[in-house]
Amino acid sequence: MKQNTEAYLKKDIGLIVAMSIVIGSVIGSGIFMKPGKVIAAAGDSNMALLAWVFGGIITLASGLTIAELSAQIPKTGGLYVYLEEVYGKLWGYLCGWVQSIIYGPAVLGALGLYFGTLLVHFFGWSPEYKLISGMMTIVFLALVNGIGVKYGGFIQAASTAGKLIPIVFIAVFGLLWGKGTIFDMPSGLTSHTGMGAAILATLWAYDGWTLVGFVAGEMKNPAKILPKATVIGLIIVTAAYLSVNMAMLAALPASEIVKLGPNAAGTAAGLLFGSVGGKLVSIGILISIFGTLNAKVLTFPRVPYAMAERGQLPLSNLLAKVHPAFGTPINATISQILLAFLFMTLGDPDRLSDIAIFIIYVFYVLAFFAVFILRKKNQGTERPYSTPGYPVIPWVAIIGSAFILITTLMDNPYDTIYALGMTVAGLPFYWWLNKKA
Q1: DSSP result, 172-191
Q2: pLDDT at 277 over 90
Q3: DSSP secondary structure string, 76-139?
């Protein structure tokens, strides 16, 4: 089966394209939205910068480990399919359930609220309009992608270039022109939640690293290109994130970054480049988040659509329908939007992003362990790609992720138990649908 699948995949992807996939899929809203949250959790600028480094190391180890699964199971569906192949239908279903009911909608909701917050700040509107602004943006992108993937693809191509502009300008000129102190700057808060919460916040900025592994079967030489693209791409992203954070600290006191929250990057740009230059950089930040939100609106509905096609969700007959004229999974898209709207009314974007990252890392850890299981199962079989530094790299991913999960559970038991409860809530549907089948 694996050989037949690979035979139909056209192997056109080289190192440069693979690196651009890594960088383009990772860089989005987090680098602009999370610096304040990371400093607040870590307690000072030194620990905050260290949290960004640890987040990059965990992400790099995770990407190199998951890439081995991607190369051995070159099927559409990503994480959902990997877990089903290794652990069976129940765990694959639960992963798909979480992606459809919690992770996808929570990510859309967080991005929508982040975008709405920056939009109302940019135009000087009342903060109460951030919710409706975020919702209208999600609806607009759903309509664009609903009438054809090529239109959403056009937005994605245009926004990918735009997202790099504010990063380069803030990083370079902030470090050159900033007069502030970067190190040993306190957060200004009397208490902090610790490194676990700080690293969790950075992982939102690093999220998206799984996407390059999805195209492993289309690379010219995945054994060489995949690890190189992952390592170089994530090193570039980590360096960019550290540079932006240091530049913002040079422009603004750490305590001010904490107070400004999502608006800190735009404020720093205004201080560095003046009113007009700051506005232009702020537009670049809005474009970056808009492009990231577009990518999620385009891709996330594909998981519930794939599950519905297999009869694995309630109302599968409805969710599996494709628009007769546009050929897009319109009902699955609507389901994601409605759930995202529900999340947007219940929590702030930082809370939603923490819930999303926490619950998806539960399944990432299962995927990391799956590499050991497949190695034992397929012993003696040649692999198209092997995780470098095995077994150290997978264990770094597992231990780092486990640290994040445990500390998050201890620091924020309410939201984490809520997310786990929603995961377990999928079991009755699984048993009922299987019995019905």
Answers
A1: HHHHHH--S--SS-B-S-S-
A2: no
A3: TTTHHHHHHHHH-HHHHHHHHHHIIIIIHHHHHHHHHHHHHHHHHHHHT--GGGHHHHHHHHHH
Helix (H) or strand (E) holding 388: none
What residue type is assigned to position 111 of the chain? Answer: L
The Cα 410–Cα 334 span in angstroms is 35
pLDDT surpassing 90 at residue 375: yes
Chain centre to alpha carbon of residue 223? 25
CA of residue 373 relative to chain centroid, distance: 26
Residue 419 contacts residue 102 (beta carbons within 8 Å) = yes
Residue 152 has pLDDT above 60, yes or no: no
- pLDDT band at residue 368 using 50, 70 and 90 as cut-offs: very high
The phi and psi torsions of 31 (rounded to 5 degrees) equal: -65, -25
Output the DSSP codes for 290-346: HHHHHHHHHHTTHHHHHHHHTT-STTHHHHT---TTT-S-HHHHHHHHHHHHHHHHH
> What is the phi/psi pair of residue 322, to 5°?
-110, 140
What separation in angstroms does the CA of 79 have from each of 18, 68, 97, 177, 375? 19, 12, 12, 44, 18
- Encoded tokens for 338: 């409605």
The C-alpha atoms of residue 219 and residue 69 are separated, in whole angstroms, by 15
Alpha carbon distance 288, 155 (integer Å)? 11
How do residues 119-132 score in pLDDT, each as one tens digit?
A: 999 999 999 999 99
The greatest distance separating any two alpha carbons of the chain, rounded to the nearest whole angstrom, comes to 67
Look up residue 15 and give its two tokens. 């190192």
Please state, in angstroms and rounded to a whole number, the distance separating the CA atoms of residues 73 and 373. 13
**pLDDT tens digits along 223-238:** 778 788 888 888 899 9
Can you tell me the distance from the alpha carbon of 153 to that of 327, in angstroms, rounded to the nearest whole number?
A: 15
Question: pTM for the complete prediction?
Answer: 0.87
**What is the predicted pLDDT for the residue at 5?**
42
As a dihedral over the C-alpha atoms of residue 283, residue 257, residue 271, residue 158, rounded to 10 degrees, the angle is -20
pLDDT > 80? residue 161? no
The DSSP output letter for 44 is: B
3 state SS of 251: helix
Backbone angles phi, psi at 220, to 5 degrees: -65, -40
Instruction: Provide CB contacts within 8 A for 245, sequence distance 6+.
Output: 35, 38, 48, 49, 52
